[in-house]
Amino acid sequence: MEISLALGGGGAKGIAHIGVLRCLERAGIRVAAMAGSSAGGTVAALFAAGYGLDEILERFKKLDFSQMYRHVPVGEKYVTTKQPELMQAAHWNHKLSRYLSNRGWKPGP
Q1: Please, what's the b/e burial string for 33-60 (b: 16 or more CB within 10 A of its CB; e: otherwise)?
Q2: Per-residue model confidence as pLDDT tens digits over 15-71
Q3: 31, 18 in Cβ contact below 8 A?
Q4: H or E segment to which residue 78 belongs
Q5: Within 10 A of 100 (CB to CB), how many other CB atoms are there?
Q6: Radius of gyration, CA atoms only, the chain
Q7: Strand (E) or helix (H) holding 2
Q8: Does pTM surpass 0.85?
Q9: By the 8 A CB rule, do 40 and 53 touch?
Q10: Does 82 have pLDDT greater than 90?
Q11: What distance in Å separates the CA atoms of residue 6 and residue 41, rounded to the nearest whole number?
Q12: How far, in Å, CA of 91 to CA of 13, rounded?
Protein backbone atom coordinates (compact mmCIF):
# COMPACT_ATOMS: atom_id res chain seq x y z
CA MET A 1 0.00 0.00 0.00
CA GLU A 2 1.19 3.53 -0.79
CA ILE A 3 0.03 6.84 0.62
CA SER A 4 0.78 10.53 0.28
CA LEU A 5 1.47 12.30 3.55
CA ALA A 6 1.37 15.92 4.73
CA LEU A 7 3.33 16.72 7.91
CA GLY A 8 2.51 19.74 10.05
CA GLY A 9 4.84 22.03 11.91
CA GLY A 10 4.97 23.19 15.48
CA GLY A 11 8.49 22.39 16.68
CA ALA A 12 8.29 19.20 18.73
CA LYS A 13 4.92 18.38 17.16
CA GLY A 14 6.55 18.40 13.73
CA ILE A 15 9.42 16.27 14.94
CA ALA A 16 6.89 13.78 16.36
CA HIS A 17 6.10 12.80 12.76
CA ILE A 18 9.23 10.66 12.94
CA GLY A 19 7.17 8.31 15.11
CA VAL A 20 4.32 8.34 12.59
CA LEU A 21 6.74 7.40 9.80
CA ARG A 22 8.16 4.61 11.96
CA CYS A 23 4.66 3.17 12.52
CA LEU A 24 3.90 3.35 8.80
CA GLU A 25 7.14 1.52 7.99
CA ARG A 26 6.34 -1.21 10.53
CA ALA A 27 2.89 -1.61 9.00
CA GLY A 28 4.39 -1.99 5.53
CA ILE A 29 2.84 1.24 4.26
CA ARG A 30 5.08 3.04 1.77
CA VAL A 31 5.05 6.84 1.59
CA ALA A 32 4.99 7.70 -2.12
CA ALA A 33 4.82 11.51 -1.72
CA MET A 34 5.37 13.91 1.16
CA ALA A 35 4.87 17.55 1.99
CA GLY A 36 5.28 19.45 5.21
CA SER A 37 5.57 22.78 6.93
CA SER A 38 8.21 23.97 9.36
CA ALA A 39 9.63 21.07 11.42
CA GLY A 40 7.34 18.63 9.58
CA GLY A 41 8.73 19.91 6.29
CA THR A 42 12.24 19.31 7.54
CA VAL A 43 11.37 15.74 8.54
CA ALA A 44 9.78 15.22 5.10
CA ALA A 45 12.83 16.63 3.29
CA LEU A 46 15.32 14.49 5.21
CA PHE A 47 13.18 11.36 4.82
CA ALA A 48 12.72 11.99 1.09
CA ALA A 49 16.49 12.48 0.78
CA GLY A 50 17.00 8.96 2.09
CA TYR A 51 17.93 9.57 5.72
CA GLY A 52 16.81 6.83 8.10
CA LEU A 53 14.39 7.71 10.88
CA ASP A 54 16.96 7.15 13.63
CA GLU A 55 19.40 9.41 11.79
CA ILE A 56 16.77 12.15 11.39
CA LEU A 57 15.98 11.99 15.10
CA GLU A 58 19.67 12.21 15.99
CA ARG A 59 20.09 15.27 13.76
CA PHE A 60 17.23 17.02 15.54
CA LYS A 61 18.71 16.13 18.93
CA LYS A 62 22.00 17.78 17.93
CA LEU A 63 20.45 21.07 16.81
CA ASP A 64 20.98 24.10 19.01
CA PHE A 65 17.55 25.68 18.72
CA SER A 66 18.65 28.73 20.71
CA GLN A 67 20.83 29.75 17.75
CA MET A 68 17.73 29.99 15.57
CA TYR A 69 16.15 32.67 17.73
CA ARG A 70 18.95 35.20 17.34
CA HIS A 71 19.17 38.11 14.96
CA VAL A 72 15.61 38.00 13.70
CA PRO A 73 14.99 40.79 11.17
CA VAL A 74 12.31 43.29 12.22
CA GLY A 75 12.16 46.12 9.73
CA GLU A 76 15.73 47.31 9.29
CA LYS A 77 16.82 46.16 12.75
CA TYR A 78 17.68 42.76 14.14
CA VAL A 79 16.30 41.70 17.50
CA THR A 80 16.70 38.67 19.72
CA THR A 81 13.45 36.83 20.25
CA LYS A 82 12.13 33.61 21.69
CA GLN A 83 9.03 33.58 19.47
CA PRO A 84 9.11 30.52 17.18
CA GLU A 85 7.08 32.25 14.48
CA LEU A 86 9.91 34.77 14.10
CA MET A 87 12.64 32.16 13.69
CA GLN A 88 15.22 33.28 11.17
CA ALA A 89 14.68 31.26 8.01
CA ALA A 90 18.23 31.83 6.75
CA HIS A 91 19.72 29.95 9.71
CA TRP A 92 17.35 27.02 9.26
CA ASN A 93 17.92 26.94 5.49
CA HIS A 94 21.68 26.85 6.06
CA LYS A 95 21.38 23.84 8.39
CA LEU A 96 18.99 22.00 6.08
CA SER A 97 21.15 22.73 3.03
CA ARG A 98 24.13 21.22 4.84
CA TYR A 99 22.24 18.00 5.52
CA LEU A 100 20.80 17.69 2.01
CA SER A 101 23.69 18.89 -0.16
CA ASN A 102 25.39 15.49 -0.15
CA ARG A 103 22.11 13.91 -1.28
CA GLY A 104 21.89 15.83 -4.57
CA TRP A 105 19.65 18.66 -3.34
CA LYS A 106 20.42 22.20 -4.44
CA PRO A 107 18.67 25.34 -3.17
CA GLY A 108 16.43 27.20 -5.59
CA PRO A 109 16.98 30.76 -6.77
Answers
A1: ebebebbbbbbbbbbbbebebeebbebb
A2: 899 999 999 999 999 999 999 988 898 899 899 889 999 999 998 888 766 665 555
A3: no
A4: strand 77-79
A5: 19
A6: 15
A7: strand 2-7
A8: no
A9: no
A10: no
A11: 9
A12: 20
